[in-house]
Amino acid sequence: MATITFIQHDGTSRDIPLTEGTSLMQLARDNRVPGIDGDCGGACACGTCHVIIDREWLAAVGPRNAEEKQMLELTPDVQPGSRLACQIQTTGALDGLRVHLPEHQM
Amino acid sequence: MNTRTLLPTTLNPTLRRLAEQAITKAQATIPIPLQIKGAHLFLKAKQRALKQAPVRPPVETPLPPVEQLALTEIDVSNPFLFRQGLWQSYFKRLRDEAPVHYQPNSPFGPYWSVTRYDDILAVDKNHAVFSAEPFIVMGDPPEGLGVEMFIAMDPPRHDAQRKAVQDVVAPKNLQDMEALIRSRVRDVLDSLPEDQPFDWVPTVSIELTARMLATLLDFPYEQRHKLVYWSDLAAGSAEATGGTADTDETFIGVADMASHFTRLWHDKAARRAAGEKPGFDLISLMQGNDDTKDLVKRPMEFLGNLALLIVGGNDTTRNSMSAGVLALNRYPEEMAKLRADPGLIPNMVSEIIRWQTPLAYMRRMATCDTMLGGQFIRKGDKVMMWYASGNRDERKFANPDAFLIDRDNARQHMSFGYGVHRCMGNRLAELQLKILWEELLPRFSTIEVLGEPERVQSNLVRGYASMMVRVKRAK
Ligand code: HEM
Ligand code: FES
Asked: Most buried among B88, B156, B282, B390, by the most CB within 10 A?
């Protein structure tokens, strides 16, 4: 089974079955992964779905889009692998992806 | 200072540029309070010369039910709409019949109203087409008082200034503040009178927010009520929001605020220069950041950013503190749910903020011709995003007028706005409300609202001037 691993700030992790054709934010919310608020429902307008992608996965996930860059600019604790989970579409190619959660959402 | 508002519009461009340069230079050298006084004198002289009447606060008259009005007559800029309990019906009619609505004749000039959740979100996100400059209130503030705040700036200027100060309310800093906030909440609650009527607004809501602000700004604690007074003046101008603050009083208040903050700045700078470790308050953060370390030399920006934190963090949280008590009294079944499961507090906090929507709107200006909801909006048009309406949009929230502490999408309220201007203090506001309810619940067996609260006169601030309550301690 294809899975995505969400790693909490305290190090605990959970494997979530990968459903294709949704966003990483929605996948996390549907599976009640704590630490992702997604207050704007995926419109790239709230910055509360901040995640950090493992470096080796950055290419597979693709670059930040322009709107997302703007929101991430204002996110505290932004890191090179920072992304907004609502802007990442889930595909089979992301099987095994490791996603870290920040300590806080903005 | 907003040089544009000071200069006659008829100046030719070259003269105008020279005059602007001169004013900017003066701003950097003349002490701020004098500048404000100067602007005040200038405004008075101009009013005398042009025989203009100074703006006076609007007078309240009963408004008609919305069914009696033609769509074109609906004017939601009226500062008495909330107070008279009519706002829900007015906005519902707009959402259903004219979700992007034009009102050409209002005391605040012509404006568009955007009233559905999805349309508001689209406008708020699109800062390139819908600019937050020059002001986010409906009318223009008194001439000469156009202080510059990053809430009313577009990127990239906005981003640089916000980044300089946002750490003061970043979640990490809040963790350290939590214990302090809690102990202050306990102090205030422990001293409430038992079983006799008192006014919740000054005793609890204003007191707690004033203490918080004094901490964020490292402002002399015993003078904290000045912060509240300045904030009320800044948000209450008749020109800007239809409020009750008088222009002369506002100028005097702002000059006083300017002198206090200028002194605080120089005092901190001197202590830092003498080798003292900088604190984690707002001014110390500004002084430690390259973009803002000389902010005191750009007085209107300096004042604007301080005013922004004071106003942003004051009314809004204060009125949410009162709103929670009111809502739980109006919906006793929700109080029962809360008593049965205090774990609902965080979700309830979001629901309180949705239900109240402490700021009714933010304003934008169209930077180019554009279409929205089938309407043609012209470059330069004023566009109001009515969060208060979006939060009651039945297309987004089921049974939207009801207060439901376990509402599953309560967090998706738009009271904090969206996009680059999304509220910087949202986590602090949530934290203060969460702590308040965690401390209230075990302490009091009843918190009873007596009669109707008195609502504030404003088209922006949705708040309570007074609310009588009686509490009984838990045995
Ligand atoms: C329930 C409480 C609060 C509400 C409802 C509220 C609401 C808002 C709204 C509607 C905006 C503009 C959003 C937009 O244009 O999209 C805003 C921005 C802002 N708020 Fe709040 N606010 C609250 C508490 C606070 C607190 C406690 C602080 C600070 C201590 C604060 C500081 C600010 C600042 C600095 C901005 C400007 C952000 C920017 O332009 O980037 N607010 N707030
Ligand atoms: S859910 Fe709001 S930015 Fe991703």
From this structure: B390
- Among A53-67, B95-109, B133-147, B287-301, the minimum mean pLDDT is found in B133-147
A39, A44, A70: residue with CB nearest B155? A70
Please answer whether residues B417 and B124 qualify as being in contact, where contact means their C-beta atoms are separated by less than 8 angstroms.
yes
Q: Which 8-state DSSP code applies to residue B201?
A: I
- What pLDDT, on the 0 to 100 scale, is given for residue B475? 84
Structure ipTM: 0.94
Residue B155 contacts A where some CB pair is shorter than 8 Å: yes
Question: Which chain A residues contact residue B422 at CB under 8 A?
Answer: 45-47
Residue A10, chain B, CB below 8 Å: the answer is: no
A80-104 burial by CB neighbour count: b if 16+ within 10 A, else e? Answer: ebbbbbbbbebeeebeebebbbbeb
Mutate to test the interface with A, among B118, B121, B125, B354 (most CBs of A within 10 A): B125
User: From A39, which residue of chain B is nearest by alpha-carbon distance?
Assistant: B412
Higher pLDDT, B207 or B250: B207
Q: Closest Cα to atom 3, ligand 2: which residue?
A: A44
Hey, what domains does chain B have and what are their CATH numbers?
A: 31-473 (1.10.630.10)
Phi, psi of A100 (to 5 degrees): -100, 145
Nearest to A1 by CA among A92, A66, A98, A81: A92
8 A C-beta contact, residue B338 and residue B399: no
CB contact (8 A) between residue A76 and residue B412? no
- Sign of the torsion angle spanned by Cα atoms B438, B443, B446, B450: negative
Tell me: pLDDT of B329 over 90: yes
Closest by Cβ to B167, choosing from A45, A71, A76: A76
How much is the pTM?
0.89
Cα of B474 vs centre of ligand 2, distance in Å, is 42
A30 touches chain B (CB under 8 A): no
Torsion of CA B469, B473, B474, B475, to 10 degrees: -150
- Phi and psi at B327, nearest 5°, equal -60, -45
Rounded Cα gap, residues B215 and B282, in angstroms: 9
Model confidence pLDDT, tens digit, residues B434-449:
999 999 999 999 999 9
Locate tokens 């000059």: which residue? B255
